[in-house]
Amino acid sequence: MDVKSLGYRTDLMLLRLCGSQLEEQSGHFTIRTPRNPGFWWGNFLLYKSLPASGEFERWQAEFRAAFPAAKHMTFGVDCTDGQLGEVAAEIEAAGFELAPNTVMTAGRADLRPPARPNMRGEYRKLTRDDDWAQALQLRLACNDTVKAQSYQIHAEERMREARRMAEAGHGGWFGAFVNGQMEAGMGLYTDGCGVARFQSVETRPEARGQGLASNLVHFAAQYGFEQMNAQTLVMVADPDYLAIRLYRAVGFKDTETQLGFEKRPA
Prior knowledge:
This protein has 7 helices and 12 strands. It is of the alpha+beta class and 266 residues long. The chain has 2 domains: 6-103, no CATH class; 108-255, Aminopeptidase (3-Layer(aba) Sandwich), CATH 3.40.630.30. Strands 1, 2, 3, 4, 5, 6, 7, 8, 9, 10, 11 and 12 form a 12-stranded mixed beta sheet that branches. The radius of gyration is 18 Å and the shape is globular. 37% of the residues are buried.
């Protein structure tokens, strides 16, 4: 699959590794994750270019045909500048939220140690059943946008996917533990192509501001270079969320903008 966007290229890499189905069609790709139909960005259409004026209605019809039972709608565009142009008003008028993200990269020479080392934390790759159970509980504790019951089903399947990929040798999930409790976590995975992608950097709300996440990102990045033979690490971040400063501080650089838009279930 010829995809220009580094953000989507690494998204698709991860989705393939966890068993998602990718199908190329005229003008777009259809991505399905049958084990997790409620995963918005595991069940979406990725278009090769922006819609022309008046064309977005057809996109929505194509989504409904591909995912007749879905309560959400999600679309990606294979571009690198994140610009929608004149069609933005049409998309927003249809009830969609624009979701531009900053795609960041770091090579081995770019990596910098955290400005605030947190020596209280134990930073390591997850290996035990209890580690994975704690990772799920951390994920649930960090959810503040989706209804708890539906989110738990989604989160459980996502963590099972993360564990399967780790046990298959594609990378791992990492945790920052304080007094035995996992306070921050994240994944880092690759298909062996030399590029590794971070996933879901999370810190328990009451443990934020202590430097745990930056120390864990640095630890996992070193692991990626030394143990996963990665040449480039990729991080995708919300440009308006404070965590992006954390990633820049340890050496990640803004590289491109990933463009998507979503319509949440009613």
